[in-house]
Every structure is written in structure tokens, then in C-alpha cells.
Prior knowledge:
It is built from no helices and 20 strands. The chain has strands at 16-21, 35-40, 50-59, 65-72, 77-82, 85-86, 91-97, 102-111, 123-126, 133-137, 146-149, 165-172, 180-189, 199-204, 211-215, 221-224, 228-232, 241-249, 260-265, 272-276.
Amino acid sequence: MKRPAAITAITALTAAALVLPATAVQGDGTPDTDMSLRVTGPAGADPGAMVEYVVTVANEGREAAPLIVGTTMPKGTTKISYDSRPVVNGRILLNTLDPGETRTLRIAARIGNHKNAPVLPAVFRAGGGGPDLVLFNDSNMSNNTGEVRTRNLKQDSLNGPDARLGITGGITGDGTPGSELTQTVTIGNTGVHRATGVWLRAVMNPASGPITKVTTVEGATGSHGTTGLNYRLPNLDPGKTHVITVTTKAAGTHLGPLGGDYYLGGVNGGDHELVLR
């Protein structure tokens, strides 16, 4: 199965991972260790398959520091391992990295078989000495490869763990067979930090008929078919919204209710479901 274009941490390998600078601190008690993180992984996988990410962590700070890679198991993945060894409580101790030193990890998991699998967007976070920093988001839906540096993120006041996503929607049209039906979905962020890694997935009800058009926001990546959609959406600042419209050719209410099931998530905004009828 190809990688869905915009889904969440519902079933993703390392859909949330932490790299924690443990001891090196500045005079104000905050970590002095800057890190770079590069990840490569598969673009897709079949249910039940083993998948692997190669994670390269480098210490770009001025002091040596032990680093910890922690993994949060997403729903639907099992048997996660690190270099063929089990991960204990989701944490991998890298021991001390000197300034300029690099370590490479291989993290694997088996994709589950439930309805939301497989989903493989790679997402990584960094923390220690304060709120977590969103460290890595793979925005290119054609692969699972990306790189980021913490030194580029620390001065951003909107960067942090406390985003709060929400989703509402409505339907325009009576469902007469062959008529145009429009589903409008609004995604908002009521948290205090920027929502990152935002994804949206939807499955249409049979009565709604085939999708003929999806209007997203600038910067969105992904695709739709006749019965569903998968999109990765741009980051969403506090107080802002994304509006997405889905146009279908109604098949008729004799097939059941109009609308569809929408699934929303992100790195730091929670997972949400909208049953639109």
C-alpha cells in the first residue's frame, strides 16, 4: 500500500519520538546542547510488514552531553526495536556525545492491520530543560526523509507542545442522486503553540457518491480518490484555521446518511474524529 498523503500518528512508525539533551546546561539551567536530526525511511508499507527508520543524531553544541532517543508507540504498530534489540520503556540511551559527534540508530516496527494502518509520516520531537521542541516534521509526502537543527527552533515562541486542534463541519446539498454535495470542514488551533505535522484523512459515506473535487489550503500536499482523501496540511498557528471543502456527486440518501468520517491529527495537537452527517 502506498503511503497515505496526510495522516497522523494513528499508525506511524515513530510517530512521536523524543531526543532529549540530558545534562549539558547553560547558566540559566537550560540545555546548551544543540542537535541535528536526520531521518530516512520508507514511503509506504503493507499491513503486517516490518518497516525501518534510520535516525542520525549529531551533537552540534559546545559541550558533551548524553542524549536519549525516546519513542512513543503509535496505535497499530508492534514489536518496535532498536538495532535488533527491544526498546525498554520507549527510551534508547545514546551515552555521551562529544561536540561534533554523530550516532546512527535503526528503529523498526511492524505495521498493524486495523483500518487506519499503515501510516508512515516520520515525526520527531526534542525536549529537556523546558517545553518540548518540535524537532522534525517530514512535510514531503512522497518520502520519509528530512533534517532539522534545534538551534533554528529555540527562538520561536510559538514552538512547543501545547497546540490544541479541533475540527467542525457541515454539508450543503439535499443528496438528490446526481446532484452536487459539498462538505465543508474547518480545522482550528485553540492552543498556545503552533500545531505541526497536521494531517487530515476522510472516508466518504456511500450516499455522498464519488469525490469530484477537493479544495485545500495553500501548501497542502496529498491526494484524494473517489471515496476518500489523505492530506498533510501546513502548520497552524494559535487562533488560525484551515478550511477544506469536499465536493461529491450524490448517489442518493437511499444508500444511507450523507457525509463522511474525518480523522485529524498532528505532532502536538492531538488526534480527533468528526462524524459528519
